[in-house]
Amino acid sequence: MVKKLLLVLWFALLIVAVSTLFWQNEFKYSLPTPVPQNYREIAMGSKIDLKCCATDQRPIFIHFFNPDCPCSRFNIPHVSGLIKKYGDRINFKIVVLNKEKSFTIQEIQEKFNAKIPVYFDEGIARNCGVYSTPQAVLVDASQNLYYRGNYNKTRYCTDAKSNYAEQAIDSLLSKTNAPSFDALALRAYGCSLPKCTK
């Protein structure tokens, strides 16, 4: 009887441990990021103040990134691919949002295998209406917000049909109307700011 009870307790503990790990590493990131109480909505088409990172007349793509956020880490290869594919036509920037640790510009550039500008300024996120990581922001050459949202509906950016950020880039470069995106593209998923936790 005691052995059976111990076995039941052991299995119950195992189930709780597996469930906790699943919640911590997977399920909670599939839920939309809660909108902060003091959030100020920035509408698509709004003029964005990017004095910090407007260097030429190319459109600007800002990748909001937290090295400690699992969702941010999972899409590094995808963002690196976008930088390689569009780097001559789009002005790529990375904004690191992490209050817990400090990172160097070189560390971030090495993660993406790209020598692009890196900023550590939360104000850029506020100006763009970003409150989670990872998020993509695309600003046209006149500094109007063209796209703000997710990269893909899958965590690893493996669904070619839902490469939202890439579709926005293609649309802007071809000067066609911005595609109409569904809620999965425009609702923030990932790690909450300012601490980038869920």
What can you tell me about this protein's structure?
With 198 residues, the protein is α/β, with parallel strands linked by helices. It has a domain at 60-192: Glutaredoxin. 35% of the residues lie in helices and 14% in strands. It contains seven helices and seven strands. The protein has helices spanning 2-25, 70-74, 76-86, 105-112, 122-128, 164-173, 183-186, and strands at 60-65, 91-96, 118-119, 132-133, 135-139, 145-149, 191-192. Strands 3-2-1-5-6 form a five-stranded mixed sheet, with helices on both faces. Helix 4 (105-112) links the parallel strand 2 and strand 3. The radius of gyration is 19 Å and the shape is elongated. The N and C termini lie far apart (42 Å). The model has no long low-confidence stretch (mean pLDDT 85).
What would a concise description of this structure say?
This protein is of the alpha/beta class and 198 residues long. The protein has a domain at 60-192: Glutaredoxin.
Search tags:
single chain; alpha/beta; 5-stranded mixed sheet; 7 helices; elongated
Helices, strands, pairings?
Elements: H1 2-25, E1 60-65, H2 70-74, H3 76-86, E2 91-96, H4 105-112, E3 118-119, H5 122-128, E4 132-133, E5 135-139, E6 145-149, H6 164-173, H7 183-186, E7 191-192
Parallel strand pairs: 1-2, 2-3
Antiparallel strand pairs: 1-5, 4-7, 5-6
The helix count comes to 7
What is the mean predicted local confidence, pLDDT?
Answer: 85
SS elements, strand count: 7
Which stretches are poorly predicted, pLDDT < 50 over at least 5 residues? none
Task: Give the terminus-to-terminus CA distance.
Answer: 42 Å
Report helical residue fraction.
Answer: 25-40%
Structural category: alpha/beta
The name of the CATH architecture of the domain at 60-192 is 3-Layer(aba) Sandwich
- Classified in CATH, the superfamily of the domain at 60-192 is Glutaredoxin
Please write the string of helix (H) and strand (E) elements: HEHHEHEHEEEHHE
**Spatial order of the strands forming the largest sheet:** 3-2-1-5-6
CATH class of the domain at 60-192: Alpha Beta
